[in-house]
Amino acid sequence: MVFFGFVSLFVSIxxxxxxxxxxxxxxxxxxxxxxxxxxxxxGRSPRIQYHSLSLADAGFTVDxxxxxxxxxxxxxxxxxxxxxxxxxxxxxxxLLQARFIPSLLRYVLxxxxxxxxxxxxxxxxxxxxxxxxxxxxxxIPMLSSVWLVCLLTGSRMIIDWHNYGFSILQLAxxxxxxxxxxxxxxxxxxxRLAATNICVTKAxxxxxxxxxxxxxxxxxxxxxxxxxxxxIENRHELFLRLSTQHSVFKSESSSAMIGVETAFTKENDGNxxxxxxxxxxxxxxxxxxxxxxxxxxxxALENCCQLIAWTCLRLDYSV
Length: 319
What we know:
Elements: H1 2-27, E1 30-41, H2 46-57, E2 61-67, H3 74-77, E3 84-89, H4 103-124, E4 129-136, H5 142-153, E5 156-161, H6 165-169, H7 178-192, E6 196-199, H8 202-212, E7 216-218, H9 232-243, E8 265-268, E9 271-274, H10 295-318
């Protein structure tokens, strides 16, 4: 009986503490506070970091919650306002990564562990934000965790859609796998519960509206202030270095002097100039992964080249 009495006392104290914390949150919520959440490496989530920087520059108190790994931007880590608070989630226990556990069970246990991890972090380590901004995917278990926190605290959930988690899951399992159907239902259900939805493209916005009935706002990526045009001198220096490793950057002119001319630039009387007959140079930040098929871009470039060649041929004939 004494043991059960201590247990009852402990549970009562815990319950009162949690309820008091939630009541304090509702009464003293930071209206200019935002918690930015990503269930991935913060340092490898540029859009989330730029969101956080923009919010901090606008005077918001920003808590950034995510996984560790690579270093976040220095501007974020050492923001002049002191309003940015980075919270790194701990790694999964080795048992949840053990290969002897069936993959389906491991997936469920991982989701439950991260769900509790997010709940505790968001409820007790953040600074009572009025808004939660999260990047999806990964969606499981983040959407339900943040929604529950918002339900308890009266805060608002904002989802920034980059892709669909279920479509990425299809690459790992069969398209008709039960996990795919569960993931799709999960994203659609909790996506509709968000106060606001944003996405990166018009196509994503239309797809969300047509298939899931979710009204989203398109917010295109914009380069932050740290990105500036590269001077022609720096470009020339870069092309010279690359030309020693890749022949495509070398000048095709037989009279070109090594160290003076590249396929894109040339030095003329001490001044660096862009060559008028330089080829196109396309730089893409898109990684070549299963869910980001870079061959789509390559195919589009081939079609573009064929169209240009056909147009030039027609112009020659017309002349």
